[in-house]
Specification:
By secondary structure, the chain is an alpha+beta fold. About 45% of the residues lie in helices and about 20% in strands. Strand 11 (about 460-465) and strand 12 form a beta hairpin. The chain is extended and about 100 Å long.
């Protein structure tokens, strides 16, 4: 493809020009604002395998990705903008792609993994285009292929793609380059993983062994002595004990990614009574004007004054509103206004638009006659609007003359897909043109909905909606009652600047006085404040449960100088000021003994209890061959668990005890085991019965199953191994 070759030859120049322009922009911003992005000692956003990824390099990539995404969104929506969530996701996606490039490119080069031009061409124009190509030619809101690039079946049209690439504009060319680069990387990665997967092998002996294990089902008798049954007070644990156990089990405390724990308090920003009264006064001032507005003026007034900027009426019954509002609205005439009334965190004005006498629900039959250009009209519909109206009138006349029944005309004439679908069953919406029972709240076209609710049973007429002309018949309806059509102006009750300043002053005073974790804790107790905690916060996190948009706080937590015991300044996160203190700083790698001392001590105590229990079991089981006799001597019940096999992960009454399963599948029937140290206690087991399942899959099937399971884990395991080997240092929290 000539355009791709052209793009490849010019990609270096494009990147250089863009990089210089971006650098000039960033430096210009720094010099004019007096800020410095390098105020931190760290100037790299990451280090991967000893290779630096600078802030400027990564920021350049991020800005390119954001620009490309925005351009792509504007292809289907010229007014599109990037919201915070989308931006965060794109930054994370750029990070993942950047890290993957660093991790895998060296591997690709070592073993010579490449992607040919033909492969790349197939990714754009083949039967199965690359997902990134499909995304590029799709509407970012609906995720459907854009009409100009779609085949009749909705799939990507390679002819249209070829036409686009042959005439690609300079502005879009670099997006094609980036897609090509990404496709190359992902295809190389797939080849790399497949090489590893194809190198895996499961022996026939392994398959036979797995088949034998799967066919055996055990009835187990066991006696257990739980660690929780013994108190800790009699156990003596020395520092030497802790250190010995810690040194032997450091792998348990290997932290793969730095984490922080915090405790924090909230100073909630809530509107004062004065704020509420001020808003109420503002809304009272608009009541008289609201009463006089009708039609389009009413709609414009509501859109201009309501927080939602939406004019939407709704039907209510008598008694649906608060009594003081209901008594005004449901006894008034059109134009009556009630309120403002405070409801939750809103102040609301109610206006009566109209009254009607109608049913709550109706059941109708219809035939839709669509026309070219009507909403959701099929591409095969070519009739004009006038032709559609004439056809609908003719069909209605035919029915009213009693020459035909409406239901007999549905399938041959309707353009409603639900009514024509051969899979639509009796009782479902659309069956023989029937829709019902429906209510005023359901999402049907207004004219369609109102006809059934407002007209009598048996009446028929032609009704126009945005979908075309409907020949409608009211089949049935509920009893009619008074309805009241209302519209509201709603405003959020918000704290004023004076209120926000007052809350900030209180929060700032607290932070200014209580500058250490000890002072923070004492003040929380003294003032009766509600302290919360958040654990295992990572530098890359964008959320903390219970806090709104906490990235600024996470930046503070991960600042270079941050240490355990530090207390923050107030951060405004949504409708509250948050003050936090760092309670734990755990860096990547093996956690120091001091940080995990409590956990280690618990394990050492468990170990000592296990030693005591094993000695007790060993003493009492001397000369004993029956589990009931041992149970009597131990004064512990002999329990039974049935239908266990090698793949069992849970033993009733015990829990997850893999050691017991391991002993079980290697034991003989009727033989007491030695004491087994488990996760929750010490156990002695005896196999009561072993049953074999003759219908178990063959060794060949298990061999294939095991291989599939191994291959399914390759992608993640290899990725994790490469990440661990590269010793990635993630500094994103200092910049993003």
């Amino acid at each position: 493809m000539s355009v791709l070759s052209s793009i490849r030859s010019r990609a270096g120049l494009l990147v250089a020009v863009i990089g210089i322009a971006l650098l000039a922009f960033i430096l210009g911003d720094i010099f004019t604002s007096g800020r410095s992005i390098f105020s931190s000692r760290e100037t790299n956003v990451a280090v991967v395998g000893g290779e630096d990824i600078s802030y400027l390099e990564f920021e350049h990539k991020v800005q390119e990705v954001l620009g490309q995404q925005l351009n792509q969104m504007k292809r289907s929506n010229p007014n599109a903008t990037l919201d915070e969530n989308t931006t965060d996701e794109l930054v994370k996606d750029t990070w993942t792609r950047t890290i993957n490039e660093k991790l895998f490119n060296h591997e690709f080069d070592k073993i010579g993994v490449t992607v040919s031009g033909d492969e790349l061409l197939d990714s754009w124009l083949g039967k199965d285009p690359h997902p990134e190509v499909i995304r590029y030619f799709s509407d970012q809101r609906t995720h459907q292929i854009l009409p100009e690039y779609a085949r009749p079946d909705g799939k990507l049209n390679p002819i249209a793609v070829k036409r686009y690439l042959d005439k690609v504009k300079d502005e879009e060319e670099k997006q094609v380059v980036e897609i090509e680069k990404y496709i190359r990387t992902t295809r190389k990665q797939t080849k790399y993983m497949n090489l590893i997967k194809k190198g895996l092998y499961v022996t026939t002996a392994q398959g036979r062994h797995d088949s034998t294990d799967a066919s055996a089902f055990y009835t187990l008798r066991y006696i257990g002595k739980k660690y929780s049954s013994a108190t800790d007070s009699a156990l003596k644990v020395t520092d030497s004990d802790l250190l010995t156990w810690y040194n032997a089990h450091q792998y348990k405390y290997n932290v793969k990614e730095a984490v922080r724990n915090i405790e924090y308090i909230n100073f909630d920003i809530t509107p004062s009574r004065r704020d509420i009264n001020d808003l109420k006064g503002d809304m009272l001032a608009m009541v008289n004007e609201f009463k006089t507005k009708t039609g389009k003026e009413d709609s414009a007034f509501v859109q201009g004054e309501s927080d939602s900027r939406v004019y939407k009426t709704r039907l209510i019954h008598r008694g649906s509103l608060k009594p003081d509002v209901d008594s005004v609205i449901c006894k008034g005439v059109a134009g009556t206004v009630a309120g403002p009334v405070e409801e939750g965190n809103k102040m609301i004005l109610y206006k009566l638009v109209a009254t009607e006498h109608s049913s709550d629900s109706a059941k109708v039959r219809h035939i839709l006659i669509a026309y070219k250009g009507a909403a959701r009209a099929d591409s095969t519909v070519t009739r004009t609007k006038d032709q559609a109206k004439h056809r609908a009138d003719s069909l209605l006349a035919l029915v009213k003359s009693k020459k035909k029944k409406l239901e007999d005309l549905v399938f041959a004439n309707t353009d409603d897909g639900g009514s024509k679908s051969p899979t639509t069953k009796e009782g479902e919406m659309g069956y023989h043109g029937i829709y019902g029972w429906y209510t005023a709240d359901m999402g049907f076209a207004t004219g369609f909905k109102n006809y059934g609710l407002q007209h009598k049973k048996g009446e028929m007429a032609v009704v126009e909606t945005e979908f075309g002309y409907h020949i409608m018949e009211v089949i049935d309806k509920t009893k009619e009652s008074d309805k009241f059509e209302i519209v509201t102006i709603e405003r959020q009750v918000q704290a004023s600047k004076a209120t926000v300043d007052s809350v900030f002053t209180a929060a700032n005073k607290f932070a200014g006085i209580n500058t250490t974790s000890d002072l923070f804790e004492k003040a929380v107790v003294k003032d009766g404040l509600n302290k919360r905690m958040a654990t295992d916060i990572k530098a890359s996190d964008h959320t903390i449960s219970g806090l709104e948009s906490p990235r600024e706080l996470i930046h503070w937590i991960y600042a270079d100088e941050r240490k355990k015991g530090d207390v923050s300044q107030p951060f405004q996160l949504g409708e509250r000021f948050v003050i936090a203190t760092v309670t734990s700083v755990r860096e990547k790698g093996v956690a120091p003994l001091d940080e995990v001392k409590d956990k280690v001590e618990m394990e050492v105590k468990k170990e000592k209890k296990a030693e005591n229990f094993i000695a007790l079991f060993t003493k009492e089981s001397a000369g004993v061959s029956k589990i009931e006799d041992l149970a009597s001597k131990m004064r512990e019940p002999a329990q039974r668990a049935e239908n266990l096999n090698f793949s069992s992960t849970f033993i009733p009454g015990v829990g997850q005890e893999y050691n017991l399963i391991g002993y079980m599948v290697t034991s003989k029937e009727g033989v007491l085991s030695k004491p087994i140290k488990g996760n929750s206690g010490v156990y002695v087991i005896m196999i009561e019965k072993i049953a074999r399942n003759d219908k178990t899959e063959t060794a060949k099937a298990f061999k294939k199953l095991t291989l599939n399971n191994m291959q399914a884990q390759v992608d993640q395991n290899v990725y994790d191994a490469l990440k661990e080997s590269a010793n990635i240092k993630d500094n994103r929290a200092k910049f993003f």
